[in-house]
Known about the structure:
The protein has nine helices and eleven strands. It is an alpha/beta fold. The strands form three sheets. Strands 5-2-1-6-7-11-10 form a seven-stranded mixed sheet, sandwiched between helices. A two-stranded antiparallel ribbon has the order 3-4. The protein starts with a helix and ends with a helix. 46% of the residues are buried.
Amino acid sequence: MSSEASMQTGTPTDIVMLVYPGMTALDMVAPQLVFSNLPNARVHLVWKNLEAVACDTGFAILPTATLADCPQRPTVLFVPGSKGATWALMQDEEVLDFLRRCGAAADWVSSVCTGSLLLAAAGLLQGYCATSHWGVRELLAEMGATPCDARVVEDRNRLTGGGVTAGMDFALTLAARLYDEPFARILQLLIEYDPQPPFGPGHPQHVDAEVLQSASALYSEEVALAAHAARAAGQALISGESPRSAN
């Protein structure tokens, strides 16, 4: 049964959302808000254990299931991003094996921000167009994906969102796919999603050179670490070794 049919007929729809220490909170919280308001949806926050997970800004999220006991054939597999925590997970075989297994069975494989690099490290974006945070988006090519400069990118059953705040655009887009566009429009109104950035669009194409240079400098160390992890993951996908061994 298709995901849209299951939501409209009352069949539970399982949405598996990876959570992990150091993740960027908004990457997960914004989509979770939308997903939790979808009819018949069961949202599972999953990690290696059920201990509280501290986000990048310090507050804790409680997983509701483990990688082992969560639904293994979900309607949606979702991965949020972060900075250093993502690069570390790109070399974590337990997490990568889970993503491969769950991603192969999911109706939708999805991410926000640098979560797409983690999907790519698991081999789930090879041959797909995808997006990520602007600072690391081009690194997707190291792992066989085609980087695309868009806020939300849909390629068959892969749906990826850009950096951080793109999670809301991503989630509403997926809501329309899972249920229908009229309902997604209602959700958009109920949460009053009407972005009006006080300083104009926060995208490299729409800021002056000084702002872009300063932001890039602040992110440069993380980009270097991400590049190292992406190269190792790409080599592992080619050789069949683990990313840690290929490092």
